[in-house]
Amino acid sequence: MGSAHSMSEEVRELVSKTGFSSEQIEQLHRRFKQLSGGQPTIRKENFNNIPDLELNPIRSKIIHAFFDNRNLRKAPNGLADEINFEDFLIIMSYFRPIEPNMDEEQLERCRKEKLRFLFHMYDSDSDGRITLEEYRNVVEELLSGNPHIGKESARSIADGAMMEAASICVGQMQPDQVYEGITFDDFLKMWQGIDIETKMHVRFLNMDAIALCH
Amino acid sequence: MAFRVRGTTQEFRFPVWGLLFLALWMLPRVLGVEEIPGHNSHENQGFQIVTFKWHHVQDPYIIALWILVASLAKIVFHLSHKVTSVVPESALLIVLGLILGGIVWAADHIASFTLTPTVFFFYLLPPIVLDAGYFMPNRLFFGNLGTILLYAVIGTVWNAATTGLSLYGVYLSGIMGDLSIGLLDFLLFGSLIAAVDPVAVLAVFEEVHVNDVLFIIVFGESLLNDAVTVVLYNVFDSFVSLGADKVTGVDCVKGIVSFFVVSLGGTLIGIIFAFLLSLVTRFTKHVRIIEPGFVFIISYLSYLTSEMLSLSAILAITFCGICCQKYVKANISEQSSTTVRYTMKMLASGAETIIFMFLGISAVDPAIWTWNTAFILLTLVFISVYRAIGVVLQTWLLNKYRMVQLEIIDQVVMSYGGLRGAVAYALVVLLDEKKVKEKNLFVSTTIIVVFFTVIFQGLTIKPLVQWLKVKKSEHREPKLNEKLHGRAFDHILSAIEDISGQIGHNYLRDKWSNFDRKVLSKLLMRRSAQKSRDRILNVFHELNLKDAISYVAEGERRGSLAFIRSPSTDNIVNVDFSTPRPSTVEASVSYLLRENVSTVCLDMQALEQRRKSIRDTEDTVTHHTLQQYLYKPRQEYKHLYSRHELTSNEDEKQDKEIFHRTMRKRLESFKSTKLGINQTKKTAKLYKRERGQKRRNSSIPNGKIPMESPTRDFTFKEKELEFSDPEETNEYEAEEMSGGIEFLANVTQDTATDSTTGIDNPVFSTEEDQSIFTKVPPWLSPEETVVPSQRARVQIPYSPSNFRRLTPIRLSTKSVDSFLLADSPEERPRSFLPESTHM
Q1: What are A45-62's pLDDT values in tens digits?
Q2: pTM summary value
Q3: Do residue B457 and residue B499 come from a single domain?
Q4: How many other C-beta atoms can be found within 10 angstroms of the C-beta atom of residue B446?
Q5: Partners of A41 in the beta sheet?
Q6: Contact list, A145 vs chain B (CB under 8 Å)
Q7: Where in the sequence does UniProt note compositional bias of the Basic residues kind (chain B) (predicted)?
Q8: Is residue B794 part of a domain?
Q9: What residues contact residue B38 under an 8 Å CB cut-off, 6+ apart?
């Protein structure tokens, strides 16, 4: 860990930026290096080398999210070609567990952040709306793990979900009213009452788990 | 008759109480009290037409009577909602037991009917624990497994040790007076009184709806601490019989080893039997009627097996239930599943009732009472205080690692919810009086502790929970979006763990579910079940069902389903006027309907608090609704009897028919997409055939349609739809088709023979049948279209690429979600939109 000392300034910056502890950053950095093959940046192809990820039905969406400029807080749309370690950490920080001493406001912000990440994953064309097409796409991928569910039923499930969303968000619609898609506000509404902040987290360990992993 | 009733003079006037008293009075005879041999004998007077053979039936008779009394008591308790909402049922049952025990005592001065450990451990406990395991919310349970294990193992050891040692310390100080107890006896007592009791916890916590996490922690602890209790109890029991001076260090090590053997062995037995059970249910397709039996028998065998190997029986049956639930529920038919669910609930709640009542009865026996104020009071104080301390210490430790922190409030409830119950009582009764000199003191103290925790704490925990504002469990309808997002979540989280190289819950869960899908499910599930067992599909299915039901209900309210009723007969035929408010038929029908819906739902909720099955609710509701308001046959149907086959009687079939009709198109559209075109075509074929059949029927001149044919034909088809899947269909297609043809042929024959005696139901007259198809609402229309859920028709989300305008009235026919415009607007009045959307 010779680099740990020289990186300490950067690490401190990253700690304040992402909220990870320096040990966690250390560990994630090792993982980053492993993924990138020693390069300073990661490209999409690098993710293909993770064997466990292969079985994940929404793999492409998740990998996509890593390069999404909205998630990287760089631009309102578009994709990055490659991400560096800091970007990697930013993405990871969406999945940090909530701190026990957070107040209401922080909690709310944390919750919104997490949901925004999720929302961006659904909203692939970054127009601020999850349209039916986009939703269907996700559901199809999501259910592709089950070989017994055809595309058609995936579609109809997506349709059903969309209608449900519409009925939650808009309530009774007028005959000529049109529901164009789920906006982020609608998305928040749908998630009301579900404590996402306790669900959407990964326990980032301080110890090295990579050795066990491979 | 030689049998004379001795106590008739004391008998009560009321029949119920008379019966009850009779039962109680006879009790002493059941257990051990010797009968005078000649008492029942009579001189040989030749053949007697009627003989009174009480002794012949005595034992089972009395058991049945006790069960009846306990069940009647439950009815009585629930007559008053005020009482049951304040006092937990378990407390009421104990009090009832005390009263009944008192009556028995007053009558006979012998208290011989008590809760014996054998009966408790072999017959009463297994159903309760199996129920707990089978309905265990697995994800919640395994998510909190670490916490539960810590409380169950360390917590119980802590409780046992501190209680035992403290009591010993106080004993040394001499407050308790002169008792012949050694340190080991105290530890033995501590170990049996330490364990939180699953029966008591369940009974009380089911009525206090605390949040899921809190519930699973307390409840899980109470289940899993059994291994600790058993080991501690056995260890100290053998130490006591060895004598304090002969206990060596080796024995202590053996004790610790035996803990691991007992707990892991019990778990392993449970898993093995769960595997066996899942495997067996995979092949029960042709013996549907005994299918539910396997679930009970094999789980019970797991209990007995581990008892035989002196492993933890409770752990075995718990894990048997936990592990098999997924596969069993997928494998067995829906009817069997319902049977299993209800039988299990019935057995469990019956056993619970009996346990608490007999706890009360057992207490009325002066022979066991040895009062020692200091000992009893101190025991009460110690178990409460040490439990609280233990919980606080462990929670402090756990909160360092837990994501969802356990708050102070949770800790209070957890400490307070540490109820002791029948397990402790049964264990203390098992003690050998020769070895444990003060057994009676232990027994009476245990009884006091159990009564105190169940009655006092059970009574006060509800107000406490309310006062502390503990997060309650919310009852939430399944939402498709939630399920979808939840699924997406699991994948995202496991992906993030993969990417970041962590091994966490999600990683393990992901690996497990992959393994499950690839190996276990293939091995243990029917092929058809493997396909339909997707939760998202299930929710989708449930929502669709719900939509359909609200559609029917609403339609009825609006009178647009009037075609179901026959215009040719007076209205009375179809509407059951025995229900209240008969005068305002049109209005009341819907009101009643809603009322019924709500009450049925409530009942179901009460029954299935931990695991709710919407589909089942819907079935009941629909059935109820239909039975009440739709077809009312004039004549009784003959009931076909078969031991091996459960044919729902014709009445029910008719009741269900409307529902099936309504649902069919919907389901078909869903299934056709799910199962592929093959199925659809076949369905269409059958459908046509059915219609042909109808037409044939309609040619019968007198208008008296033999009802069985379309109905049976229909249900048959439904069933086939329900249980077949493409693969199996392909395999068995020829067979099934020929079966179908044969069946139809049979039906036709029936038609011929039955037409004279045919069931004369005006509702089913030809015209009506036709009218159903002429006035068809869209979901009944014969064309093959994809019919969206009701919400789809009501509120189609607009997406420019797909829909022009999707409204109830005007729809794009291009869209997948479009439906036929066959129905007129008034058939689907817009005013019912709110109901459907706010379900």
Answers
A1: 777 777 777 777 777 778
A2: 0.66
A3: no
A4: 24
A5: A84
A6: 517
A7: 688-697
A8: no
A9: none
